[in-house]
Fold ABC transporter permease.
Amino acid sequence: MPGRRAAFPRPLLLAKDYAVLILLVVVTVYLSFASSAFFTSDNLLNILNQNAPLAIIAAAGTFVIVSGNFDLSTASVFAVASVSAAWLASETGDVALALAAAPVIGLALGAVNGLVVTALRIHSFLATLASSLVYSALAVLITGGALITVTAEGFTELGRGEFLGVFIPVWVLAGVVALLWFLLSGTVFGRHVFATGGNAEAAELSGVRVNRVKILVFTLSGLAAGVAAAIAVSRIASGQPQAGAGMELQAIAAIILGGTSIHGGVGAVWRSVAGVFLIALIGNGFDILDFNPQLKDLVTGVIILAAVALAAVGRTRR
């Protein structure tokens, strides 16, 4: 109820709503004073460039979690899309075809996830856990378990190239985030995603085609994984079935850290992207300051737990 929310201390409400931005600022300021190597254009652009694929996946994954679902298959979709692109490039020499195939394959695999969840009425956690195993096996079959090296001319331009002094993956990230941000916050489809995650039964009664929304959010998640795969495989000029291992958990962690509710109905694309780069800054700080790398996961985990606890307190006090 609005009245009960108003009773919640305003400073804590602001801390809850903008916790990820506050932490970003705090970490940035600390690292800027701790090391002169941190706050440089080269270092900051490298952080953006290296984490662009994960940020793209997290931005699209926000739709899935806001809709009240989970996608545990993004790393496997990423693997299939990347090895398929590498195989096509090495077999045909057609760079444009190979890199364009990755998003298309990701879209198709994501759509399969959505159809399985809706048609078979299986919980998305279990459905995408199963599909991740299937897709991982498919990536191994495509490569025969071996590394596919690409030597086709121009294949690395997408992943390593620059435009106006900025890496191309950063431009792709900016375009994808802007588009997804608008799609979630400024369109009817976005409102339907929130409605589905808030209360699927009520949304359906009010005319929202819930199953179609679910299919579309999983399709979008797969498409994003394919775009990320195209960038990553172009950057390293090779495809391997283990590519992206653990990426799905990193993306979910960033989304939750950003303030998107695991219960659905609450979230924003910018929050998830901020979550990705908060984790990236922590990792970068450990490298620059030469801290014990074994403590990095501990610090990241504590921050995520704190963010989830803050969100839970805000939800129970409303």
Notes: The chain is about 75% helix and 5% strand. The longest strand covers residues 148-149. Residues 11-317 form a domain with the ABC transporter involved in vitamin B12 uptake, BtuC fold (CATH 1.10.3470). Residues 210-236 form the longest helix (27 residues).
